[in-house]
User: Which sequence fits this backbone?
């Protein structure tokens, strides 16, 4: 198929629209997760965890954080797998991979030698679940060895492995900690989609969620699959793929404050290519070396990323402290007003008052 040529603005608008960051806003949490395909569940809560910020940036003030808990723990419309929340309707696309896991010899050998340990955990969950990992005794035969933080964390490692095999599942959380149960009691009875077919469906859904991606990017569908239209972005080297449903669609922009783990900004190379926007998550840097802040929120205005918000939620003080609003482009009065309004909405949603040297006047 001969590639179309689009300009950067068209590419950006495709990406923003695919991520549900234009107008009108969506109105349903499960609809949002289904469209995005996944939301990363990361505990960093300098402002709010990404699992809360991502839905809020789409749904706005109507989103209640209890909705996520209800969808995961009561309604069974969402599930958590490997640190991502996904629509339960997509479970069928992961079951074949679960049945084939593990693919690495190291994990396979550790599971084989620890078969009695595996059986102990499954028996205990059958009798007493849901349980926290610390409520499960370590009866491992051989400890898990790693150069990282998982070294000798045998119960947690076995639970992770059994989750990847589809034998156990996350049934909920207690004080932020995962509760574990047998997968058969968490997941509905779901047909297994064969691995290659499931992979193709996931690739197609990933492109639809991102709108546009590099032709050679991980997880990109084949251009001949029918789910991807090859394009050239004027002024950007290389070839890209676009979700055909996103071409020639109207665009009405708005302003949004994004999680640093938001899928719109997560691919830093794509971010530079399409948005000409530099971003680094600086929470792992020494304070003196940070340019934008510990957990600076990217600021989207229509189809441009225009700055970063350095803010911290001080829940004991009841304030959302705004230390800086970094302008990557000179803010017009319209951008300033829109950013301040979104910031006020964020504070209200968090049930905090605005404070700090950079808090908008009249909002402190």
Assistant:
């Amino acid at each position: 198929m001969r590639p179309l040529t689009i300009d950067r603005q068209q590419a950006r608008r495709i990406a923003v629209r695919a991520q549900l960051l234009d107008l009108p806003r969506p109105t349903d949490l499960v609809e949002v997760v289904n469209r995005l395909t996944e939301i990363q569940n990361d505990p960093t809560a300098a402002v709010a965890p990404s699992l809360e910020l991502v839905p809020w940036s789409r749904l706005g003030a109507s989103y209640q954080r209890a909705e996520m808990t209800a969808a995961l723990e009561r309604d069974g419309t969402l599930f958590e797998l490997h640190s991502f929340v996904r629509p339960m309707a997509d479970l069928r696309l992961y079951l074949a991979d679960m049945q084939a896991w593990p693919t690495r010899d190291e994990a396979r050998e550790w599971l084989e030698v620890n078969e009695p340990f595996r059986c102990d955990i499954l028996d205990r969950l059958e009798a007493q679940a849901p349980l926290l990992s610390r409520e499960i005794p370590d009866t491992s035969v051989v400890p898990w060895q790693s150069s990282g933080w998982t070294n000798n964390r045998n119960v947690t490692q076995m639970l992770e492995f059994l989750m990847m095999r589809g034998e156990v599942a996350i049934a909920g959380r207690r004080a932020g900690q995962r509760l574990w149960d047998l997968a058969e009691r968490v997941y509905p009875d779901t047909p297994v989609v064969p691995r290659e077919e499931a992979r193709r469906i996931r690739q197609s859904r990933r492109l639809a969620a991102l709108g546009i991606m590099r032709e050679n990017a991980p997880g990109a569908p084949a251009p001949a699959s029918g789910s991807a239209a090859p394009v050239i972005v004027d002024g950007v080297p290389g070839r890209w793929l676009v979700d055909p449903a996103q071409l020639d669609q109207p665009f009405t922009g708005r302003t949004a404050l994004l999680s640093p783990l938001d899928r719109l900004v997560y691919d830093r190379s794509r971010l530079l290519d399409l948005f000409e926007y530099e971003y680094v998550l600086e929470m792992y840097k020494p304070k003196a070396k940070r340019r934008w802040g510990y957990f600076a929120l990217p600021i989207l205005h229509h189809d441009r990323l225009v700055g970063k918000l350095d803010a911290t939620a001080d829940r004991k003080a009841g304030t959302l402290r705004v230390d800086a609003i970094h302008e990557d482009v000179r803010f017009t009065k319209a951008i300033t007003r829109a950013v301040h309004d979104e910031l006020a909405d964020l504070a209200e949603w968090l049930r905090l008052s605005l404070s700090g040297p950079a808090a908008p006047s009249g909002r402190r």
Observations:
- Residues 103 and 231 are 35 Å apart (CA to CA).
- Residues 255-355 form one domain.
- The mean pLDDT is 95.
